[in-house]
Amino acid sequence: MNHRDIQTRLSEMRDAARLMEIDNLVWDRLNTPAEKMEWESREKYLQSCPPGNQIVAVIGDEIGGYIGFKPPTPLPSNAHVLELNIAIHPAYQRQGIGRVLMDALVRLAAERGVRKLSLRVLASNPGAVAFYESCGFAEQGRLVEEFWLDGQYVDDIFMWRKV
C-alpha cells in the first residue's frame, strides 16, 4: 500500500462502531494484560474514547486503524505529555499504517505544544517494541514480572520519545 493512499483525521462520533470492531479484533493476551476487549456499549466506548482523542487512518471508505492519545493525568503540570495506544485492523497490518499514524500524532502533538509521548508495551510483544523503537521511542523504565499471562511472568515496558 502506498502511504499516499492513507488519509488521517481526528476520530468522529460516526467512527465508534468501526473503532470498537478494531479493538475487538486486535487486543488479546499477546498485547494487553486486560481481558479480551469487549465494549459493553457504544456509550461506554465513547465515554472512554471520546471523538477527537484518536487519529484514524482512512483507506478508501474504511478505517484501517487508529492511534489514541490522552494526557496521563488531569494535572496541569503533566499537560506536556501524551500517552498513546495504537491498533491496526488485522487486514491492514504491516502495510505502513502504524508509521503514518505515528507521524500524524507527532505533528499534532507538536502543534499542541506537547513535548513528550509515552506508552506501555508488554515485553512479550517484541514486534511492537521494535516498531516503537523504529519510531524513535526508547525504554524509560520497566516493571519486571508485572503480569502473569498464560503461565509466565511478563515485564511491562515504559517507552517514550520527545516530540
From TrEMBL:
Pfam families: Acetyltransf_1. CDD domains: NAT_SF. It comes from the Bacteria. The keyword Transferase applies. The keyword Hydrolase does not apply. InterPro entries: Acyl_CoA_acyltransferase, Bact_Acetyltransf, GNAT_dom. GO terms for molecular function: acyltransferase activity, transferring groups other than amino-acyl groups. Residues 6-163 form the N-acetyltransferase domain. Keywords: Acyltransferase, Transferase. This is GNAT family N-acetyltransferase. It comes from Paenibacillus mellifer.
